[in-house]
Structure formats: structure tokens, C-alpha cells
Specification:
The chain has 7 helices and 11 strands. By secondary structure, it is of the alpha+beta class. It folds into 2 domains: 36 residues; 226 residues, Rossmann fold. Strands 1, 2, 3, 4, 5, 6, 7, 8, 9, 10 and 11 form an 11-stranded mixed sheet that branches. It starts with 34 loop residues before the first helix and ends in a 9-residue tail after the last helix.
């Protein structure tokens, strides 16, 4: 399936060059019946594709250097993000209606510094070790949070007790087969309540090159790409978990990054190398959230009124359509 392009041995041109495989234009790995041979040829084909791509990239770079200022602008690659379908609910920061909603919604007392967050973190009934450790580490990330392990107590009974003890938010970590797979966030006393699917949970000991344990300083909170009305509500809901006045001396930052409706959480510490250079060191834990529903009021699975529910068959018809 290949040709040798090296010199003929013994003609005085030195040792033969290594064999270079040239695949025909219509080459298809799937036509090879032998599994091991098919895998081997696939790896060689990928290697050749990589070499051709690097050679083309090097050629274009040399052309740009030769042209100098006359070089054409670099082409912007097409991605799902920059081809996103426009959403009519995208928030304009200068919109008076949005400003009025922010001044009167459930999170207004927090952003006006009238209330201080107090969080209760609990679990599903009889959690296993990994979920317990995740809750304990999450409590070190969110200041003024308390972990309670519930045993058979219904959420409808927990919520009135939280309100009576001045808790502002309730976080419930659900698990399946000993792995945390869901997060319910309820803002007290009047809601709303968000239900997330949780994935890619990594505890501190599972993160490479992690930093030392986080300190008790209040971290800075960064929210990225929450652009629609729904995303704006979710972003304010997540921000309300942390005190509004971060202690920058602690150099800690909690990031909620929304990309394609997946919310990636990371917890870092700044490392100042010099006056001009700064690095970041991940502290953990890390996880990914996917919004399933947003419900008015506190948690009520039977009679609750839902503001938004993710319906896959109706909403996921276009890969470039995002809701947050």
C-alpha cells in the first residue's frame, strides 16, 4: 500500500532514506479487514496528516514573515461558539427593564449588602464516602457554609428549619452509584430553585499540581458568558453564595465559566511571580454543571411552578443554539 522514494542501495548516494508511505487519494482505513493492520495503518495515516498540517503551517508562517505589514489578516476559525444562533433574550447591560428586575428580584438584598450569605450543604439520603468528601471540600470553598448529613429527612422539612435558622441558601448534593451526579440549589426563603446535573467531579487529591489547602479568606467570584435572561438569573444565583466583599489579600478566585450551556467550576489561587507576571494554581475541587430546570419558590417536585425546563427533543435540535 506504499512506495519507496529513497535512493537505490549501492549507487554511491549513501545509506537509503527511511521509507515514506504515500497513501492514495481514495485510501480508506475501513477497507482493511485485519483489525491489527487496520489500527496500524490508521496511526500511520494520522501521523502523515499531522506532518502535512505542520508543514503547511510552517509555510504560511514564512509567507507572512516575508510579506511583513502587507500580510493579509489571519482567518478567524469557525467554532460553535462564534457561530452561535442569536438569542432574543440576550441581556443588554444598559436596559432599564433589566436594571429594574435586578433591583427587585430575590437576590437584590444580597447585592445591596443587606444580607450576608449563610449556606447549608446537605446530601442525598445516606451518602457514600466520595460524596461526603466532596461536600466537606465544597464547604471550604464557600465561606460561612455548614455541612449537614441528612438521614431520611425530607427536603420539605429541612427548608422550614433552614429559614428559621437564617440560612440564605440550601445546596443538596445527589449521588448515583457512589458518584455525585446532581446539585439542587434553593435560594431561601422564597426561591428560586435550580436543579443541575453534575459531572466530571474531581476532588483535591485527584488534581495534578494542586496548591496547598485554601485559606479562610473570602474568594473573588468570576462569572463568564452568562448573557441571556436565564443565564443572568443563574449567574446571580451562583454569585449570591459568596459574600459580596472579597478579601483580595487571600489571592483566591472561584470561577463559573459557561460554555455551550455547561458551567465549569474552578477554584484557583493567584501566584505573583513578579510585578508583571502572574500565574494561577488550582486548589480544587472542580466540577461541571448542566442546568435541568429552574423553579419558582423553594423545592417542590410535585406542585412547583417551573420557569424553565430543559427538554432535549425540543431544545437540542440545533447545536449552535444555547440558553444561558
Amino acid at each position: 500500500a506504499g512506495e519507496s522514494s529513497g535512493p537505490v542501495p549501492g549507487d554511491g548516494a549513501g545509506p537509503p532514506a527511511p521509507e515514506r508511505v504515500l497513501f492514495p487519494p481514495t485510501f480508506s482505513v475501513s477497507e482493511i479487514k485485519n483489525k491489527q493492520r487496520r489500527h496500524f495503518m490508521f496511526l500511520r495515516w494520522k501521523q502523515q496528516q499531522r506532518k502535512e498540517k505542520l508543514a503547511l503551517k510552517k509555510k504560511r508562517r514564512k509567507e507572512r514573515e516575508a510579506l511583513g505589514d502587507k500580510a493579509p489578516p489571519k482567518a478567524i476559525p469557525k467554532t460553535i461558539e462564534n457561530q452561535r444562533v442569536y438569542d432574543e433574550t440576550t441581556v443588554d447591560p444598559n436596559d432599564e427593564e433589566v436594571a429594574f428586575d435586578e433591583a427587585t428580584d430575590e437576590f437584590a438584598p444580597y447585592f445591596n449588602r443587606q444580607t450576608v450569605p449563610k449556606i447549608l450543604i446537605t446530601t442525598s439520603d445516606r451518602p457514600r464516602g466520595r460524596t461526603v468528601r466532596f461536600c466537606e471540600q465544597l464547604a471550604t470553598v464557600i465561606p460561612n457554609s455548614h455541612v449537614y448529613y441528612r438521614r431520611g429527612l425530607a427536603l420539605k422539612r429541612i427548608i422550614p428549619q433552614c429559614i428559621a435558622r437564617d440560612f440564605t441558601d440550601l445546596i443538596v448534593i445527589n449521588e448515583d452509584r457512589k458518584i455525585p451526579n446532581g446539585l439542587v440549589l434553593s435560594h431561601l426563603p422564597d426561591g428560586p430553585t435550580a436543579h443541575f446535573r453534575m459531572s466530571s467531579v474531581r476532588l483535591r487529591k485527584e488534581i495534578k499540581r494542586k496548591g496547598k489547602e485554601p485559606t479562610e479568606h473570602v474568594p473573588e467570584v468570576i462569572l463568564n458568558n452568562f448573557t441571556t435572561r436565564l443565564g443572568h438569573s443563574i449567574g446571580r444565583m451562583l454569585a449570591a453564595l459568596f459574600p459580596h466583599d472579597p478579601q483580595f489579600i487571600g489571592r483566591q478566585v472561584a470561577t463559573f465559566h459557561n460554555q455551550r450551556d455547561y458551567i465549569f467550576f474552578r477554584f484557583h489561587r493567584y501566584i505573583f511571580k513578579s510585578e508583571k507576571k502572574v500565574g494561577i494554581q488550582e486548589l480544587g475541587p472542580r466540577f461541571t454543571l448542566k442546568l435541568r430546570s429552574l423553579q419558582k419558590g423553594t423545592f417542590d417536585s410535585k406542585f412547583g411552578e417551573y420557569e424553565w425546563i430543559h427538554k432535549r427533543r425540543e431544545m437540542d435540535t440545533n447545536r449552535r443554539k444555547f440558553h444561558l
